[in-house]
């Protein structure tokens, strides 16, 4: 099964993807995580992506699509995956459709996590991540038990450069799923919308139901 998670930055795609992959066994593929790994490792791709990421802009399609297609060609993605943060536009969706069609597959579900702009600003501004395992915390809603340390692996907790308030607004404006992208999956009969303004468990349940 191939599943796409759609939603604005801060809708909880990463958090929910981790929960859903735990529940379904699907492979979690996040283009944001892939870019952050490349930035951390100082690769050529990371150097290129970092400028866009720090400004809250999308990395160019050519680069992003090539990275994603290379990743899904690996054997662990043969039977299914949950895409988190990809596609961000119709060109990326079409590239993914074509690659899957080439192996007789398609996107079975596109799950849209709906959250209002005001709620997003508050969430992103307070978000902190573990540098080692990527676990997500929120200074108000879901803080780690020990300040600055990850509950799961004791790694260091940090704030993403692009979660600073001045960048957050740009990301929300520029990175909302465009109507055409939502329409792409609606036309394919794959779209399901879930209210993302409820507590984490309720959203997870809603998404699992939508996956049936
Ligand atoms: P995310 O973790 O999904 O919020 O992504 C972090 C950053 O990585 C974004 O602000 C973009 O700069 C970049 N990025 C992630 N996924 C994509 C994508 N599908 N297309 C273009 N840029 C992306």
Question: TL;DR?
Answer:
By secondary structure, the protein is of the alpha/beta class. The protein has nine helices and eight strands. Strand 5 and strand 6 form a beta hairpin.
Give an account of the 3D structure.
- With 212 residues, the protein is of the alpha/beta class.
- It has one domain: P-loop containing nucleotide triphosphate hydrolases (Rossmann fold).
- It has helices at 13-24, 31-41, 44-55, 61-72, 90-101, 117-125, 165-175, 179-187, 200-211; strands at 2-6, 28-30, 81-84, 109-114, 127-130, 136-138, 157-158, 191-195.
- The strands form two sheets. The protein has a five-stranded parallel β-sheet, sandwiched between helices.
- Helix 2 (31-41) packs across helix 3 and helix 6 packs across helix 7.
- The longest helix has 12 residues, at 13-24.
- The protein binds adenosine monophosphate.
- The site of adenosine monophosphate has 18 residues, from helix 2 and helix 3.
Q: Structural class of the helix and strand makeup?
A: alpha/beta
Taken together, the total number of domains comes to 1
CATH superfamily: P-loop containing nucleotide triphosphate hydrolases
Q: Mean of residue pLDDT?
A: 94
Helix-strand topology string: EHEHHHEHEHEEEHHEH
Rg for CA atoms: 16 Å
As a percent range, the share of strand residues is 15-25%
Uncertain ranges: none
Order of neighbouring strands in the sheet with most strands = 2-3-1-4-8
Largest sheet features: 5 strands, parallel
> At the third CATH level, what is the topology name?
Rossmann fold
Number of strands: 8
- Oligomeric state of the chains in view: single chain
Specify the helix fraction band.
40-55%
Distance between the termini: 11 Å
Overall geometry: globular
Q: What top-tier CATH class fits best?
A: Alpha Beta
CATH architecture descriptor: 3-Layer(aba) Sandwich
Distinct bound molecules: adenosine monophosphate
